[in-house]
Design a protein that fits this description.
The protein has 159 residues and is mainly α. The chain is built from nine helices and two strands, in the order H-H-E-E-H-H-H-H-H-H-H. The radius of gyration is 18 Å and the shape is elongated.
């Protein structure tokens, strides 16, 4: 198999989210970490751009520098900002501090029912505050994801 250097065409991230994106942005159709850089005239992954150990972990997890094996990918030939991505790139990113709160809350002995009702109430409050229903639902899905992902197995099994 011929492996070429990644040229930042965005094809992989657009067509299928990586494991990190699926974990961090479960409700997003297209990874919100995929960013077009006008300066470099290519897409970059914001996760891989993070400084320090966290960025290094993402670079290892996402095989940074390993190249592209999508030889039949026509996007490689013309690297440009894709209109499809601009139109479909709709997602909500939960701020890190709120993610930390949700992780702490997820570790508490709170019933699934109570968490579900709290999320539903939160979604209704978002709608009252001007969010469209689809956005409120997406935020609710993300909140549930962070809560569920941080629940110890003993709590999951108990509830």
């Amino acid at each position: 198999m011929n492996v070429d250097e990644c040229n930042g065409c965005g094809f992989c991230c657009y067509k299928a989210k990586c494991v990190a994106a699926a974990r961090l942005y479960p409700a997003a159709e297209i990874c919100p970490a995929l960013k077009w850089t006008e300066e470099k005239k290519r897409y970059v992954c914001d996760l891989m751009q993070l400084p320090g150990n966290l960025g290094e972990i993402y670079r290892k997890e996402l095989y940074a520098g390993e190249g592209c094996c999508m030889n039949l990918n026509t996007w490689r030939k013309v690297v440009q900002k894709r209109r499809e991505i601009e139109l479909e790139h709709k997602t909500v990113i939960i701020p890190k501090i709120f993610q930390m709160f949700l992780a702490s809350l997820g570790r508490e002995w709170i019933s699934q029912d109570a968490l579900y009702l709290a999320i539903m109430g939160f979604q209704q409050n978002l709608i009252k505050d001007g969010y469209i229903e689809e956005e409120a639902k997406e935020i609710g899905i993300l909140v549930a994801h962070y809560l569920k992902g941080n629940r110890p197995s003993i709590i999951k099994d108990f509830m």
